[in-house]
Specification:
single chain, about 400 residues, alpha/beta, Rossmann fold, Immunoglobulin-like, 8-stranded mixed β-sheet, 4-stranded antiparallel β-sheet, about 25% strand
Length: about 400
Amino acid sequence: MRTVLLTGPGGSGRSTVAAATALTAAREGARTLVVSADPQDTLGAALGTRTGPAPTPVAPGLTALRPDPDDGFRAELLAAQDHTRAALDLLGAERLDDEELTALPGAAELAVLRTLRDIADGTHGTYDTVVVDLPAAPRALALLALPEQLRRYLRRLLPPERQAARALRPMLGRLAGVPVPAASLYEAAARWDARLAAAQAVIEAPDTSVRLVAEPGPAGADAVAAAVTGLALHGLRLDAVVANRVVPDPDGDTPWLAALRAQQHKALAEWETAYATHRVPHLGQDPRGADDLAALGLPAPGPAPAPVDWPVTDALAEESLLIWTIPLPGAVRDDLGLIRRGDELVVTVGPFRRIVPLPSALRRCTVTGAALRDGTLRIRFTPDPDLWPRTR
């Protein structure tokens, strides 16, 4: 299943581009699903058909879906309450009722994760192509990183290996005289982990990539540069940059239009040098319906780009070093932070942070330096003589 995730700065026309991309894919014969969690239904406005939480056919081969964050939030919270019943009873907590629950900020983003999970297990049907209209960056990048982060939290708070002692819990509780976590709590954690893993599998699948949508210009260029850095840090593949609302080249420009076109051309030249770039013309109006979307000329998703690689280079023979290479295009030294915590490395680049486990060979080494050059971070590791296998 080919999955394209679209994000970009706010107001860049992401929903319209998502609708046009999905329509092209469907017209080329792919069974296509387009998803958006925007409560204003901008996706439906672009398609000319209202969308909602039930899959809605909008054109031959094209289905639209807009999950309801309120219903999903209530269902997930009530399910979590049921799974942790024993712990809540121990605390004397009063149960929450369905009628008193309202969605909290971020519920729309969580609805997207639930939808990705449901797409993976076929709840909404079987599709060849899925186009997902994500929130604006960097919120979208935080959302895409969330399953990995939450699974890490679950492993730290409720390590799965502790479940091996479940038969001893009642006896330990009586001997120690203190409450011991019930088996249901670990079972609930396992269910949450499985759900997060399903969403993470879609995000990290070989056929998944990200398209950035932005208007060419100074603000759009800055937003794209920051998003590209965030994508690289989280190991997400950039499919293309969609330059939206490109002003045509008429005769006899007015001064203000000539200045706008000059700004756009400068950004376009930079993007087309660095990325696969699709130009989308400004129609002079907000696109509405299939004819307007087709006039944008957006291509259907092609093959996904190659995975982002973080190789470890063996330089032991020459320099007694192992070098971990991490591509971070656009990163600058002043915005970079590195902290080692046990067998993990905390990497911070501007507003983005990721905690990654060290490859097995590097866990037996100490960090002896790092250098950022030409958008590539190289971290040097020296084998720890107390941990590294000795040679004769």
